[in-house]
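cron nightly-structures :: item 1 of 1
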Amino acid sequence: QLPTGLYKKVLVILHDSVLPYMNEPTLMMDFLTVAYGIGGAISLLALNGLFILIHQHNLEYPDFYKKLYSLLDPSIYHVKYRARFFHLTDLFLSSSHLPAYLVAAFIKRLARLALTAPPEALLMIIPFLCNLFRRHPACRVLVHRPGGPADMSEDPYVMEEEEPSESRALESSLWEIQSLQNHYHPDVAKAAAVLNQSLSEMEDDISGLLELSAYELFDREVKKKAVDVPLEFEQVRGLFGKKNDIFAGHFSLD
């Protein structure tokens, strides 16, 4: 049992400053699996070490994706370690051998949580979801299903279900992204509108978007050049401006 602050300090450096120098990295299996089960930021930080053990040392973790799915809550779009979490989640969902119901559950849950996410997180998560559709074409039914639910109460997806296979995500539709097409931030609305068209084969590079901050987003808007907005849609003609104005029939300039 370690204090929360110490857990975080250890897990932040474990994957690159400890495991590569151990003769038997598998000795850390119990520590990392326990840390992964604690929840919150500690679970997010434990993902790095677990990924190394799973990928390089054949660690078997039967409920790994179920636990990863349970980590998806509204805080993931706001936490300090958001970039690290989504970088690893992108790796974990990259395999084409994952069942469609599992990937659909992740897509649907991320989209539902996106309804309350800040703009800087939305500009990252929308291309992230598009990449998942490119890797797993069977999930595109979420976008192209005709006659989706009229409102949230009719959506068959069960948000509270902890088991991805029981969430009924494949029976649902991605109305959340359609809602984001009316987002107040124009860049978010433009990004969400991509799903109205056929996706290209090339995946989007999200590496530059993982650490996008609200400050950078605001700074980008401030530095945009102002565009002159016309206030009249009819070209001004004559002294009084409008073409068929009553004054134009009685007055003229020589």
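cron nightly-structures :: done
Residues 99-224 form one domain.
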